[in-house]
From TrEMBL:
One of its GO terms (biological process) is signal transduction. PANTHER family: INOSITOL MONOPHOSPHATASE, INOSITOL-1-MONOPHOSPHATASE-RELATED. It is an enzyme of class 3 (hydrolase). Its EC number is 3.1.3.25. This is Inositol-1-monophosphatase. InterPro entries: Inositol_monoP_metal-BS, Inositol_monophosphatase-like. The gene is suhB.
Length: 262
């Protein structure tokens, strides 16, 4: 893997932050206007004109900034890489489209850069509050300009766990037992806001079925803060496929794997 200098890391980070600043303004303006809403796989899987517009904008910027890179993005304007060789960017233009459309809250814009399958930088923008959680192993993790530090290593029974509502409802992957064993449980309905709560120590863990654009940025930031990221069986995530993702403190991760296996 080609090693990026601290200057190059800083340049990439600041460039993406400029993109996100522009997208935040456009997304907030569009949210209060008429939205063109369609369904994808089912009635709960929504896509809006803002999802598509944001993705086209981000992908255009990436192709100009890093022309040899490949892009994995949700709405079909990216590439379909068969390996993680070289620069691979992940783009989720509106994470939590249902929340965006119905709640006007708890949604995010997410971008991540991996080089030769190694996490380099991630960005999760809390659009409504205009906070970008960003960074990576070479620079640490920040909420805008405020450095974040590793959260307390609490066990599952000491904190709140965030879970996929649909899979909790049907008792899949041991989620029902995980919810019962936690101090409390919540369903947010979006990956980015859920990752943010774990990064900030507001939850000890989060698990859901996700595509790579859902977890790529969160994995960069979580691992940088010493959190454990794996699939529900404790294995490394496949960056080019869907996974049952688990991010948690070390102790909560151990507790959740034990419950899932039992």
């Amino acid at each position: 893997m080609s090693t990026l200098s601290p200057f190059e890391i800083q340049e990439i980070d600041q460039t993406v932050l400029m993109w996100l600043d522009e997208l935040q303004k456009a997304t907030m303006a569009a949210m209060n206007q008429h939205l063109d809403v369609a369904t994808k796989h089912d009635a709960r899987d929504l896509v809006t004109n803002v999802d598509k517009s944001n993705e086209q904008t981000i992908n255009k910027y990436i192709r100009k900034f890093d022309p040899d890179a490949q892009i994995v993005s949700e709405e079909g304007f990216g590439d379909k890489p068969i390996s993680m060789a070289g620069h691979v960017w992940f783009v989720d233009p509106i994470d939590g489209t249902m929340n965006f459309y119905k709640q006007h809250d708890d949604f995010a814009i997410m971008i991540a850069l991996y080089i030769d399958n190694q996490p380099i930088l991630g960005w999760i923008m809390d659009v409504v509050n205009n906070i970008v959680y960003h960074g990576g192993p070479q620079m640490g993790v920040f909420a805008n300009q405020l450095r974040l530090y590793p959260p307390e290593n609490d066990a599952l029974n000491q904190g709140i766990v965030l879970l996929s509502g649909a899979r909790l409802l049907y008792g899949m992957f041991g989620y029902d037992e995980i919810a019962k064993s936690a101090l409390g449980y919540r369903v947010i309905g979006a990956a980015g806001p859920s990752f943010i709560r774990v990064l900030r120590g507001q939850a000890v863990g989060y698990s859901s079925k996700m595509m790579s654009w859902d977890f790529a940025a969160g994995q960069v930031l979580a691992k940088t803060l010493g959190l454990i990221v794996s699939d529900i069986d404790g294995k490394q995530l496949d960056m080019l496929s869907s996974n049952i993702v688990l991010v948690a403190t070390n102790r909560a991760h151990r507790d959740i794997l034990a419950l899932h296996r039992s």
